[in-house]
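Quick one:
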Amino acid sequence: MNDSVLFLVLRRMRAPLIVMILIYAISIFGLVLIPGVNAEGRPTPPMSFFDAFYFISYTASTIGFGEIPNAFSYGQRFWVTVCIYLTVIGWTYAILSILNLLKDDGLQRALATNRFARKIRNLSEPFCIICGVGETGSLICKTLDQVQMRFVVLDTRPEPLQELELGDYAADVPALHADAREPHYLLLAGLRHPNCKAVLAVTNSDDANLAIAMNVRLLNPGIPIIARAEHAATAANMHSFGTNFVVDPYALFARRLALAMRSPPSYQLVEWLTRVPGSPLPELQHPPTGKWIICGYGHFGRAIVQHLDTLGMHDEIRIIDPRPTTPDDHLSIVSAGTEASPLIDAGIRDAVGLVAGSDNDINNLSIAITARELNPDLCIVMRQSSSGNSLLFDAFDADLTLVTTQTVAHACLSFLTTPLLSRFIREVEKQTPEWSQVVIEQLAPLCSGVVPFVWTTRINRNKTPALFSALQQTDNNITLAALMTSNRCRTDRLKLMPLMLERAGQVTLLPADHIPLHTGDKIIWAGSRTAWNEQKLTTGYGNALNFVLTGSTSTG
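Output:
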């Protein structure tokens, strides 16, 4: 990389260097040929090459020193006058060339790439590569920074990278203006770096995300890939070559909507655990079952209809779409749905819910406003494609809103930071509403009105060295309660609760305090960030763990 920068500089400065060399050579050669005179007016031998080079060196750089080794003759002075103007012109040309070179896009890219590669080589902490730092990527970056995980960014647009530089991040963020679809840049970003833990392909283009996932799978098969896919065909393609986690925001939202209808407390619990930590807790939603009108039968509309069908609502669904469709035997109307007449024809007055799910935010707002005027009691679900329209959607205040970028970001973060959470969510979906309500009542006092912090404790030598060492001693019987106790005061309980324990592939939901811990256990927790930091100290340092277990800080 340094060689390419040097080559670029030498190539762009080739003409100025040749001009300066010629000017110096002509000036020196002229002084060597022109004879001088002494104080008595007698001719003296011409200057030596060294004297001529020395004189031109300080004269051409405008320093000035005097006539050496003797006073010049009129011929020498005339030649020196010519040389002065020549060298000034030459230096002016060279300096302007240097200034133009400093503004050259090619040099700036080469220098930026060189700095980026150096930062990646010097990374000594685990990090992930984020390809695409738009609305979704920015949200992921901010959350990863909160959980103290390093990340590297690649993006084809300079504007998001400039915003990233102005962001208030705890650590330096290596970022490069480059196309992550090119394997060279993925390798430059540390794809084969020993500390690279995952690659996130979250650009706005399914084709780009597919290409990135394919490149990662071929260049480093052992690296987990988290990819965004907004089309079912792209998601199926990604799954075919082993992409670890594919985020389909529409299918994910549709599944959550069906969960909200079937078990509102379960939906509320999932929302509490998957939102950005520290954000306000979402309110309980209870979408009704009955007649629903789906405006927009694209990928999002199809996903909604598919999950509503599983709830036995097949005969209650009406579809409105401007394109002729084959909506699986559902009643359909060819229209955009922005006027009142197609909504009335679909039965809006006796419907219980409406989905404004086209790919145009303004049309969705128009559909929702018209529908609410026709039926004020309607439950309205909306799709928001751009975060730039948040003020408009907030002003309307729909019952549920799919913000595509946020849904993708939340899903990616859940898999990246707490992979065990996805399994817990699947278990939640199987439970009764009463079970989920009990969990919410236990979790609410720990949240203080904001989304809790969720993390996983893996009991092994690297993640929890002190706890792992203590469990190796056969006479130690350490229970889950030890990880819930403050290492500052043994009588205080940390603001956290265990959600699930996984041992040898088997899971225990809401494990009891008295369950003994084993090496290899994985426990998923929810609570405050302070509790997480304190628990991490207990499991990592022998003195803190011994105080929790015995009341003494001595490990002897």
